[in-house]
Structure formats: C-alpha cells, structure tokens
Amino acid sequence: MKFATKVIHVGVKPDPSTGAIMTPIYQTSTYVQSAPGVHQGFEYARTQNPTRSALEENLAALENGRHAICYASGLAAMDAILKLYHPGDEVLCTNDLYGGSYRLLTKIFSQFGLVGKFVDMSDTEILAQSITPNTKLIWIETPTNPMLSIIDIRAVCDIAKEAGVKVCVDNTFSSPYLQTPLTLGADIVTHSATKYINGHSDVIHGVVITDDDEISDQLRFIQNAAGAVPGPMDCFLVLRGIKTLHLRMERSCDNAATIAAYLRSHKKVSKVYYPGLEDHPNHAVAKRQMKKFGGMVSFDLVDNTLTSATSVLSNTQLFSLAESLGGVESLIGHPASMTHAAIPKAERLKVGLTDSLIRLSVGVEDVEDLIQDLDQALSLV
Q: What pTM did the predictor assign?
C-alpha cells in the first residue's frame, strides 16, 4: 500500500454500530466486563483506548514498523525510551539537539545516573571513536534542530550494530513522509506528533515506533505503569491531521526550498541552513535518505546582532513569532531564547547557534506572500 493510501485507511475502519467513516472519540475511562477478566479487548483507558489503538496502528504503518506506542507529548515519548536504560548507561546524542531533549537528559535523567554525551554525528568517524563499553543508545535527530545538519542514518546504524548499540531516530523534522529510519536500520523511531504528523497546531502528542517485540513490550509496560498517555480527543485530532500529511509536506517542502533560495540571494542574510541547497555539507546524504528536504529553514543575518534579529522576528505579519513547528501556518522563531534556551550558550555556539539565528517553519500558504512578508521585515534591519 502506498503512503497516500496508508495515511487515510490504515487503522481506520467505519464504526460498526453506526457506519461513521471517522474513528469515534471513545471518551471513556473504563469498559464493562461480562465476567472478571472477560472483556472485548479493553479494560481501563490508561491501558487501552480504541481511538488510540487506531492511531497507533496507523502510525506504525507509516514508519514501516509493527508497533507504535503513543504518549501525551514528544518528551513523554523520549522519557519512556530513556527509562529502558540504567544508571551508568551512556546515551550518545547528536550535538545539535532540541533544547527540551537536552534538558530531559542532562537535568532529569542525569540525577539517576544516565550519562548523556554529545558528539558531531555528521562525521561518522567521530561517532565511532566516541562509543564506549557503557554506550547503550545512540540518539539521532536529522535534520537537526535548528542547524539542519544531516546525519547518515544507515551509516550510524551500521556502526551501532557492530558495537551492539541501539539507535533511536527523532524523526520529527522529517515526518515519515520524507524518511523512514526503521528501513535504514534504526531500532526505534520517535516523533513529537504535535508537529508535522498532526500539522494543525491544536494538540500535544508523542509516539514511539519499533519493529522490536521486546522493546515494544517494555514500552507498553512503561506507558501503562507511568501513565503518560494521550487522551482520546488528542488521538482523534492526530488521526485527522495525518490524512493530509503527504499533501501538507509536499507544499511545505516546496515553499521552504523557494524561501531558502530567496534568502540566499538577500544582501542582508549571511548564511542559510537548508539541506536542499547543493552546497549544504551533507546535501548528498539528504538527497539519498529523504524524499524532499523538509519545511524548516534557518538563517543568520549579515549584521549578526540580537537587535537586528529581534527586529526581523518582531515585524513579520504572516510568519507568527511562536515556538513549535510543522503546522499549516508559517512560524518564525529565535532558538537561542525559545526552543534551545535550556542549552548553555557556550554549547550552542559550538554548533553555530548564535544569538542572531532565526528559524522558520514554512507552512502551506502562497509562497509569494511569505517572501513578501520576509522581505518587508528584512528591509527594517
């Protein structure tokens, strides 16, 4: 079954009692049993919910996996994955990491003895040299947030398997429409489904997908025991959003490519970060492992001061100044003070995340209107 068919049909069946085409919102906390332990597959809504089950089946199919486990947020999904490991275990992470992920690992799990180490994974030799006997998990974002570096998933997975280490890919920036890490050798894929998967900026949600039965069983246990589950309304909204994922991603990617080219030629822009540009350091890898190059664009100004960046950020009309990404509407953000504020400035600067860096989440509006909006904001610098 092709992707555009999967998003609409997998896991979604007409309601047998009414024929409703959309999966119902099963807004219930418990289910009647005909005798103790005798039920229709559902006992208590923290453990199972039919709306959530439909979504999990759909998401597993989109990532070409067999198991999907949904959570109340993307960070709740990461929290569950990290709970698979023990004090003294080491997690190797890309050095350009979402601020919330960095905070969870360094401020929360570090208290329980989990060690986070951050390396440049765009260079696989550096990665291979960084693995130690304590390394149990390699955590990848690609494209990275916000510098849009590209990591060769297959190459990392080959190195990891030789060392007996699991690989998890945070696929939030790409969505399963652009790349499917499980088919490239990853053991686990996770998403903040808040972003492209849902696509409408109206829900917080997370998911983990795997082909590994043991990992799935462990995560199901953690999901039920810790209780960080999404509500049925949230699952319904994500299932609704998924139906247009392929259409939204196509438009967002096309708009982003046009905007990246525009910014690159602008006299007030010093550098554009976008994997679709041919001079991007890992453009060839992106071209090989991604269907298109994504809807995210970051850039720095010639006058690389916070004052100039603030002027641009405060004067767009169609690009809304807000955190998050992946919705139908275009957003503009300042990673240093917003999404990545939890990361110390010295660490941010090591990967090029300056105080003047601006990040765009390019939506599905008319691209000419978006360019005009950026143009008038840049003219004020």
A: 0.95
